[in-house]
Amino acid sequence: MLGEFGAVALSSLSQAWSSRWAGISKMGFPFKYAAADASKIYCANEPFDVVENCKITKGRESQTIVSDLDGTLLRSRSSFPYFMLIAFEAGSPLRAAILLLLSPLAWVMYNFISESAGIKILIFLSFAGLRLSAIESAARGVLSKFYLEDMHSRSYRLFIACGRRCVVTANPRIMVEPFLKEYLEVEAVMGTEIQTTSGGYATGFVSASTDVLVGLNKRSAVKKYFGNDPPDVGLGDRESDYPFMSLCKEAYIVPSDEPVEAVPKNEYLKPLIFHDGRLVCRPTPLMSLAILLWTPIGIVLAVIRIFIGLILPMWLAKVVETSLGVSMIVKGIPPNSHAAAASKKGGQQQPHRGVLFVCSHRTLLDPIFLSVAAGRRVSAVTYSISRLSEILAPIRTVRLTRCRDTDAQTMTTLLKQGDLAVCPEGTTCREPFLLRFSSLFAELADEIVPVTMNIKIQLFHGTTARGWKSMDPLFFFMNPAPSYEVTFLEQLPIEMTCTGGKSSHEVANYIQKELAKSLGFQCTDFTRKDKYRVLAGTDGTVPASSSSAAAKKQQLAIRSRIVGC
Asked: What are 284-324's pLDDT values in tens digits?
């Protein structure tokens, strides 16, 4: 490992100085790049006009734009956080620790030797030995969220104003292409190509045919793609972008010394609804260090918190958990269980004795915190739960089969025995959206109480679509101060139930809207299958290759389907 790393560093250093001196001897110093208009000459101390002075007019929808990524479309000039995400999410915490430990070497190489050398070190540390499918999955499901939140508002507005959009970047194409094509509708991504083995693993080395796309390599890639028809607009943020920018009819620099706001979520071309990964915060070097230092402490704290929840009565566990940093806010008044059980009609006991709690879904722990808030144990049904979580759960959990008749019988039996919690979305959603509700629950009970569940976390997500679901509770409790907010809404009036003449779909849609209104979320008609197709390349039930043509076709077919609440 260290021998290969040293070879990469020495090779990068040699190539960097060779290319630098070759550029000087060929083009002179300071470097001068002729623009598409021969009358315009720019050099290192005569930058292009700044992007703030560019006018965004209606005519730009017919123009082509080529942009750099880091520091241009993104506010941050450093790509380290995104390599860290690949190392942590597609690799392991150990790989992430090694990357953090050796990142000063990459920084020195990047800033004092050459951009190419520094990027090669980051690529080797992050990618070497990983499956391509794991890299692609992390890029698609994890990186997109952090890229969107880091978008530079000024350059973004110019970028999306143009009809044809292309990106040229030193980052590996496999790492940035899913985000750029899915959320920015980019036509072409010109990025660094990585070497792979015949078995589908990344070697950690850069393809010899293209090398790292910096400086003149960027210019060559743009020229090769566009041929004799140069792009209309070029965007860059540093001197090494000047070569490709000089090919464009007009070009603008994105200043690095001015703070700029991120792009508001309502300006996204496509809303971010699904994303995966364990890390909550963008892993800058300082944040990465904090996460790695906290992790062993968080594991011990999480085990203690879980153990207390298992052995103590709920009322006492709530008090002790609060002293350990786990907080819970309860709003509204939960219905009395005995009142539900005692309801009669025509002198006969009702078959559905329990209250049906219909909850929004944030983590696997929703029914447990609901039970604590209600002051009694509430059974729960779920589509997906690990065997370990099922064994350790302090409440009764029953797995559904996705066979409508069988599941209806199971839920009816549980309601006769007591209260029942259901999450009709069928899966969790991290963003402020509610997925489409399954309507089965509406056919089984009249005493329905909608319940909103919301959480606050600091470092780790307690849900995953790609990872080990059995670790979800551990990651949730690893947060320094995780918080749950449980809100009981008014019980559904009888006229809004199936007994009152409403169809099961009308009842489900009504509850979805009421929960969304209470949470301040938006309703969608996405389903759990849509989530797993986006994040894992499967439908959430049958394993499938994320790189298969069918999976890719399904993923591209998903479009924004937000409905009014």
From this structure: 999 999 999 999 999 999 999 999 999 999 899 999 999 99
Q: Taking the alpha carbons of 72, 78, 81, 85 in that order, is the dihedral positive or negative?
A: positive
What is the helix (H) or strand (E) element at residue 219, kind and residue range? helix 216-226
Nearest Cα residue to 127 out of 93, 168, 95, 79: 95
What angle do helix axes 115-127 and 93-108 make, rounded to 10 degrees? Answer: 170
Question: Which one-letter DSSP state was computed for residue 36?
Answer: S
pLDDT at 86 over 60: yes
- Which tokens belong to 406? 């069988």
**Closest C-alpha among 282, 267, 290, 288 to residue 75:** 282
Contact 354, 341 (CB under 8 A): yes
Strand bridging mode 348-349 / 250-253: unpaired
10 Å Cβ neighbour count for 49?
11
Residue 214: partners with Cβ closer than 8 Å, 6 or more residues away: 114, 115, 116, 119, 170, 240
Q: Distance of alpha carbon 229 from its chain centroid, rounded? A: 37
Question: How far is 282 from 284, CA to CA, in rounded Å?
Answer: 6
Residues 6+ apart with CB under 8 A from 246: 33, 34, 35, 36, 42, 219, 234
**How far apart, in whole angstroms, are the C-alpha atoms of residue 412 and residue 281?**
42
Say what the pLDDT of residue 135 is.
Answer: 95
Interior CA angle at 130 toward 126 and 132, to 5°?
110
Please report where in the chains the tokens 């690949």 appear, as a residue.
86
Amino acid present at 502:
K
Nearest alpha-carbon partner for 304 in 315, 291, 320, 316: 320
What is the C-alpha to C-alpha distance for residues 306 and 317, in angstroms, rounded to an integer?
Answer: 10
Ramachandran assignment for 399, one of left (phi > 0), alpha (psi -120 to 50 degrees), beta (any other): beta
Q: DSSP for 502-546? A: --HHHHHHHHHHHHHHHHT-EEE---HHHHHHHHTSS-SSS---T
Condensed to tens digits (0 to 9), the pLDDT of residues 31-85 reads: 343 333 322 334 444 468 899 888 887 889 999 999 999 999 999 999 999 999 9
DSSP assignments along 447-493, one per residue = -EEEEEEEEE-SSB-S--SSS-GGGHHHHHHTSSS-EEEEEE-PPPP
Which residues 6+ apart lie within 8 Å of 342 measured at CB? none
> Cα 388 vs. chain centroid, distance in angstroms?
26
- Say if residues 392 and 470 touch (Cβ distance below 8 Å): no
Torsion angle of the four alpha carbons 343, 349, 354, 358, in this order, in degrees rounded to the nearest 10 = -70
Confidence class for position 231, pLDDT limits 50, 70, 90 = very high
pTM greater than 0.85:
no
Q: Return the SS3 of 378.
A: coil
In the predicted model, what is the mean pLDDT of residues 119-130? 96
